[in-house]
Amino acid sequence: MTVDYHESLREVSTPSGVLRYHEAGTGPTLLLLHGSGPGVTGWRNFRGNLEVFARHFRCLVLEFPGFGVSDDFGGHPMVDAQGAVVAFADALGLDHVDVIGNSMGGGVGINFAIQHPERVGRLVTIGGIGTNIFSPGPSEGIRLLQEFTENPTRERLIDWLRSMVYDPALVTDELIEERWALATEPGTLAAARRMYGKAAFAAMMQMMRAADLPMPWALMHKVAAPTLLTWGRDDRVSPLDMALVPMRTIPNAEFHVFPNCGHWVMIEAKAAFEQTVLGFLTR
After folding, report:
1. Confidence band, pLDDT 50/70/90 cuts, at residue 278
2. CA 277 to CA 59: how far, in whole Å?
3. How many CA atoms lie within 13 A of 49 on its CB side?
4. Distance separating alpha carbons of residues 29 and 14, to the nearest angstrom
5. For this UniProt entry, which segments traverse the membrane (predicted)?
6. For 28-52, how does the pLDDT look when each residue is reduced to its tens digit (9 = 90+)?
7. Which residues make Cβ contacts (< 8 Å) with residue 11, sequence separation at least 6?
């Protein structure tokens, strides 16, 4: 099965704006949630995996608001993403889904599973959750992301992209140009600054302290869904020690580490990731 970008692209209206997504395959519904970062989209995160997963599932790759494909809902993109999943599921009448979430998308998936346990069957996360235990924070990858957001240059984009992978050969000229075009689009860049600008980052932390809100990792014991945590051993964005809290506190969690692999597990360890995830989802 070959999944074409244009043929698979769909859109649905919600009270907050239009959400776009890609659909491929038939069977039980598998919702795929992308991560954050310059020039990211759901399609770019998961396009290489759809051919395999669509043989078994009805795959829905949601494009979060504020990343240049769906409408911008106008708020903090990470917060808007939480509501967008619920709005998307309601609009399509999705009563029960399995979820794969990459990095930020994994955190969104965890929140969805906590708030709507009856709607999530199995949950797969790819790095990006938990909290630093032994490694310093923010990590190298997050610092490079903030530097690009503050002052976007092609060189800073390349530095950030290389922090995402174990093998620098994956950062091709084509990838750089693809990411640069969307990351520097004015609306997308403005949304990124609401999320990763240093002032915005500090303001969000201050707001959480003032409101006495628990950190996301402190709520993971509420996840009822069977969960597979996947991680690149050489992740420089969310180092491996971040997995310790979710691994221990999510009641039905399994943990798989891929060697010689950075933050983009679904890309850099493609075949092994697909085999591991399919085994978990179809067990």
Report:
1. very high
2. 14
3. 34
4. 20
5. none
6. 999 999 999 999 999 999 999 999 9
7. 18, 19, 20, 21, 70
What digits encode the pLDDT tens for the residues 143-172?
Answer: 999 999 999 999 999 999 999 999 999 999
According to CATH, what is the number of the domain 5-135+215-281?
3.40.50.1820
pLDDT digits (tens, 9 = 90+) for 231-262: 999 999 999 999 999 999 999 999 999 999 99
Helix or strand or coil: residue 106? helix
pLDDT at 126: 98
**CA 269 to CA 256: how far, in whole Å?**
12
Mean pLDDT of the chain: 95
CA distance 104 to 97: 18
Residue 144: CB atoms within 10 Å? 24
Determine phi and psi for 162, rounding to 5 degrees. -70, -25
Q: Residue with structure tokens 């959480």?
A: 208
Tokens linked to 101: 């979430």
Tokens of 180: 């640069």
* Residue 84 CB coordination number (10 Å): 25
Q: Is 221 a catalytic site residue?
A: no
Query: Taking the CA of residue 139 as centre, how many other CA atoms within 13 Å lie in the half-sphere pointing to its CB?
Result: 24
- Angle 198-210/140-150 helices, nearest 10 degrees? 120
Unique residue bearing structure tokens 């039980």 = 28
125 within 8 A of 109, measured Cβ to Cβ: yes
Task: Please state, in angstroms and as integers, the Cα–Cα distance from residue 161 to each residue in 127, 167, 230, 247, following that order.
Answer: 16, 11, 20, 27
Amino acid at 16: S
Burial label, 47 (beta-carbon count in 10 A; 0-12, 13-18, 19+):
middle
CA-CA-CA-CA dihedral for 231, 236, 237, 238, to nearest 10: 40
268 token code pair: 């850099």
